[in-house]
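call fold(seq) -> tokens
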Amino acid sequence: MSRKYEVNNVSVESILSWIRDGDVAIPEIQRPFVWDSTKVRDLIDSLYKGYPVGYLITWRNPDIRLKDGTKSSGKRILIDGQQRVTAMTAALMGMEVLDENYNKKSIKIAFNPLEERFEVLNTAIEKDPNWIKDISVFIKGEVNELKFVYDFCKEVPDIIDEILFKKIKKLTEIKHRVIGIIELSHSLDIETVTEIFIRINSKGVVLSQADFAMSKIAVNKEFNGYLIRKIIDYFCHMARNSSIVEAIRKNDPEFVQTDYFSKITWIAKEKQDLYVPTYSDVIRVAFTSQFHRGKLSDLVSLLSGRNFKTREYEKEIEEESFKTFEKGVLEFVNETNFKRYIMIVKSTGIIDKTLIRSQNVLNFGYILYLTLKTKGVDSNKIEKLVRKWLVLSLLTGRYSGSSESQFDYDIKKMLEDSFEVFIENEEKGQLSDAFWDNILVSRLDTSVRSSPYFSLFLISQIKSGDRGFLSKEIEVKHLIEERGDIHHIFPKKYLQKYNLGRGQYNQIANYVIMQSEINIKIKDKSPKIYFNLIKEDITNQKFSITGIENLEELKENMKENCIPESIFEMEVGDYEQFLNERRKLMAQKIKKYYFSL
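ret:
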């Protein structure tokens, strides 16, 4: 039985040389250096005192079979310990690090040999002769120690040269301190590596399969992996913070000169926040749309050169996999593709991120769009199929569970059966009459405001151009865009007076989106009272509650908001009847909306 891992003790100097020589790669898994400088100081202090600083965990890439039959030894990927190793390279090697905003910064650690104390270099220490200003010059051997001791003792007569020599010797011995390395076998699958990582790491930090994929991408220089990593990383950061563009221009001029940079800067000017992808989203969409697989462990294997038939690792497969994956990433970040997909999503009625909480629904929608486009499907048909699939996925909670397995199943079946046939079959199987008449009605029986079914009701209203409850002109779309409020048809305070609990008065069938100023006028009146006040206003043309001018207009507004006409006579004793009636109306409205797509 092959060993799953090996445990070794390695000197700090060896680890730093591995980093310098590229034998161990720091993957920068979507997270620049985030440690506070004082944590760097504390790490160096622990190394100086010989205290343990925790294990590093590496995962060796498999050996790749070359064309001539020989094998190329795989690099180590640093799975856990990135921040510690980055801290050491900054403090001991004098390398600059990137902060969260992609600005380069130096972290200089000063040392007071009299007190044997470390501090982050600051203005006061700069002026204090008792401090060695930057310990890295000693670790790198850039200082003549005899001359330094002579000069230092002239400035600080309180210290004896022999003692100073000992302190500097102890300081330079930091590079000889040993750190435990747990090296995981390349033969382990991602699930096993993840399990080992969680068990060893006391923080219980969970690394996703996208993290492992990003590691594989980041360490590859031969086939542009490190550039692909930057495309993904920079694109996602710019989508969230446009100001990062200038930091990238300043700190990564080499990448800025590539065609890749010009292909992604457009995202910084985008104002939409409906679909703001993470690096995990980009990897998943790029992989599934190009390789027609859903499990990211397969991507890791392919990028390692895995031949699934022979179980060998081959250079040709590695090269082809990187080329295909790069194509997928560029298709994802393509301005035309991205903007057209967002337009399709919005044309569905999904105009705001609050309406769709499942990022994987959006991810698979983009996968479907890119795949259909690659297949040369007519653009009008693409729009229709993507719209249908987005809503069907929301209706059935398709990607709420094991989304990776579902992605794998869906993309393979779609290609096997043809997209139209597959979607049609899923529609017949999932959305029967029983679904619309019973299942959906029962799913609307909930007090969870974030329910996807209430969101679907609002989406159907947006698509239909419906007005807010009791609004004359203001549409549901406008209220959502301007962060309008969700209110209770049977007012909350009214129901509370009759001792109804939160789970009862907060039923989503009691919710509407409406103008706050109208809601304030209703206060805590029963529906019977405030609806009859509205009728009186219409008769007398006073409009004290709403601007609606006649009964036909009022009834049309009620229909748009699925309010049963029996509301005119309803009080607290009729509340359950109202909920049952409205759930059925909401379900039918969603059904009509779906089949109009």
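The two ends are 56 Å apart (CA to CA).
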